[in-house]
């Protein structure tokens, strides 16, 4: 009982190794890492406001179904990102791990999109480059109404440009995937830290009350036992009285 009472009052290990992350070659707490990620995301959202405005005016002046779908998809992801940033700061400041779930979900969606884009780039470079380039050139010529027919030199030059563009995109996507995986690991570690801290707090406050109640009950039981032990049980007292009466009768005889 004393061991449980002492373990329930032990402080939470905030600086444990599982709650540390490497940030710019120096170990920092996952809580600090999560705040840094939130600040970086907030700066990115602020920088993309201008592009979102351009997409909005483009969708108004050149209305099309595809343009509207792209705009509303980007707008939904943009609003989700803002919500994730706000809940991230609220989770870290208030110590509520569930508020990190929107950010974790958004990171999973972003990571899935980057993996799919990287896989598409690899497929393009491995087997579908010639076919894809021919299809793009055909689409360009059909859109131009057949006014401009590309020569073989122009086709070869465009083919090289497309290949170099896809290779550069693959490099950027690979670096982005590595950064996103690290961000996701930091956020997941922060979620585990807040969850463990919340569980420790609940366990500590939940064990102290029952232990005090058990101590009070034990003290009450001891007092009742001591009071009852002062008096012999009724059957035992009756047997003693009967034995004394028998002895007095025998002595009288």
Q: Could you explain the architecture of this structure?
A:
The chain is mainly alpha-helical and 253 residues long. The chain has one domain. It has helices at 2-8, 30-47, 49-61, 65-94, 101-143, 152-229, 234-252, and strands at 20-23, 26-29. Strands 1-2 form a two-stranded antiparallel sheet. A hairpin with a 2-residue loop joins strand 1 and strand 2 (26-29). The two termini are 61 Å apart. The model is unreliable at 1-8 and 207-230 (pLDDT under 50).
Total DSSP E strands: 2
Distance between the termini: 61 Å
Helical amount: over 70%
Oligomer: single chain
**General form:** elongated
Q: Structural class of the secondary structure composition?
A: mainly alpha
The number of helical runs is 7
Content of β-strand: under 5%
Q: Using only CA atoms, what is the Rg? A: 38 Å
The low-pLDDT segments are 1-8, 207-230
If strands are numbered along the chain, what order do they take across the biggest sheet?
Answer: 1-2
